[in-house]
Model the fold of this input.
Amino acid sequence: MTDAVALLGICWEEGATGPRGAAAGPQAVRERLFSDAGNGYAESGVAILDRLVDVGDPDLPLAEVAGRKAIEVAARDAAAVGAVLALGGDHSVTLPLMRAAATRHGPLHVLHFDAHPDLYPELDGRRYSHASPFVRGLEEGLIERLVQVGIRANSPPQREVVARYGDRVRQYGPADLAAIDGEFLGSPRYVTIDIDALDPAFAPGVAHPEAGGLTVRELVDVIRRLGGNWIAADLVEVVPERDVAGLTAVAAAKVIKELIAVH
Done:
């Protein structure tokens, strides 16, 4: 089943540092993805639902260390079905997901969409919150190269991390999309999408909205250009209780369909 994609729900938000509710994200996105009101095809005509195998949501302990380990195990198990596409959950779930992918494929070339770099060495004394998965991934040797797209809420501690890792990390704001080097990322490729990469006009249902973000079309176009042949992916930080008319779930389902189409 080389074309199969295992859809894995990660209903976990123990890495959140602000408003909660992302644990309900997987269900909201699934409902829109499989809704009769939607379309089961990508824009290219690829039949998305024919590729998806929903492997469900594992039971996850709330303790952070045990929870991260359980997420890693669940992702390894799901990989027996096909490429793993996880629905979070807060962005801290990406670290154990990357651990599982790197164990199978080696150091990863990560394409990361987000308003925030998530490169804090620590935030409020926490090293494994949703503010830090990518600095931990670099430290652990999980990430070979990292391209961050949509960044518009940076800070000095995170810029210091980028400087420390030199040419292995590149950041692009919403105004810089044309400058993204398509040759920089190699394989194996991991795609991680914090839905707040989108402007709040398209994705209001997030914990930490930042104005001035990507449009859905811009996000899809970058995925088509850079996201092909990914071996694992995630989409995180959908907070249904903060959503408006289900717009965020609609956008997330659209992005997922176009991501599967380039797998």
